[in-house]
Amino acid sequence: MKFMHWLLVGCVVALPLSASAQWQWIDKNGKKVFSDQAPPPDVPEKNILRRSGTPPPRPATGIDAPAAEGTDAAAPKARESAAAPKPSGVDKELEEKTKKAEAEEKAKRAAEEAKVAKSKADNCARAREGKSTLDSGIRIAKVNAKGEREIMDDTTRADEQKRVQSVIDSDCK
Q1: Which terminus of the chain is more solvent-facing, meaning fewer CB atoms within 10 Å of its CB: N or C?
Q2: Is residue 41 part of a domain?
Q3: Tens-place pLDDT, residues 119-163
Q4: How many angstroms separate the CA atoms of 74 and 133, rounded?
């Protein structure tokens, strides 16, 4: 019974492979077209890149027999690649999508930079407020890890002033 389940799963997984596009050509606008149907008759033979069920046709070289042992085997391959049709034109839809994606990315970066700038401005304002409080000389109490209030001594106040000044130096530009 398990074999039948695995066979069924294998068939279901392999099913989309048979539905893939089998024809490929370049249309009159220079776009690559993928389809399971043959191209329209107005498409020239040189613009058909792939055919249904057959490999792309080789250009006529005048040699029907396989190459002899003493010949250069790389030469026919070079001729094949040189004779392959090259796409003429730019895919306008792809270009538009690329421009749109770049614009979205630029807007996203600008929004992120604005968010960082706002955060720095808030940090600057808080640091300046804290510095003025520390410079005023009033008693400042902090709550320790046990929840008890502790009054800042002079060394702790000096350390806190240095820390606040470093925040001001980095965020208030």
Answers
A1: N
A2: no
A3: 989 989 999 999 999 998 889 988 989 999 999 898 999 999 999
A4: 81
Structural domain total, the chain: 1
In a domain, 87, yes or no: no
Helix residue spans in 62-91 (DSSP H): 74-83
Does a structural domain hold residue 164?
yes
Q: List the domain range (segments joined by +) for residue 148.
A: 92-171
Residue 3 resides in a domain = no
Strand partners, 141: 151
What span, in angstroms and rounded, lies between the C-alpha atoms of 145 and 96? 58
Cα–Cα distance between 172 and 77 in angstroms, integer?
65
Q: What is the 3-state secondary structure (H, E, C) of the chain?
A: CHHHHHHHHHHHHHHHHHCCCCEEEECCCCCEEEECCCCCCCCCHHHEEECCCCCCCCCCCCCCCCCCCCCCCHHHHHHHHHHCCCCCCCCHHHHHHHHHHHHHHHHHHHHHHHHHHHHHHHHHHHHHHHHHHHHHCCCCEEECCCCCEEECCHHHHHHHHHHHHHHHHHHCC
Cβ-Cβ contacts under 8 Å for 61 (sequence gap 6 or more):
76, 79
Residues in the chain: 173
d(CA 84, CA 46) in angstroms, rounded, equals 8
What is the predicted pLDDT for the residue at 65?
45
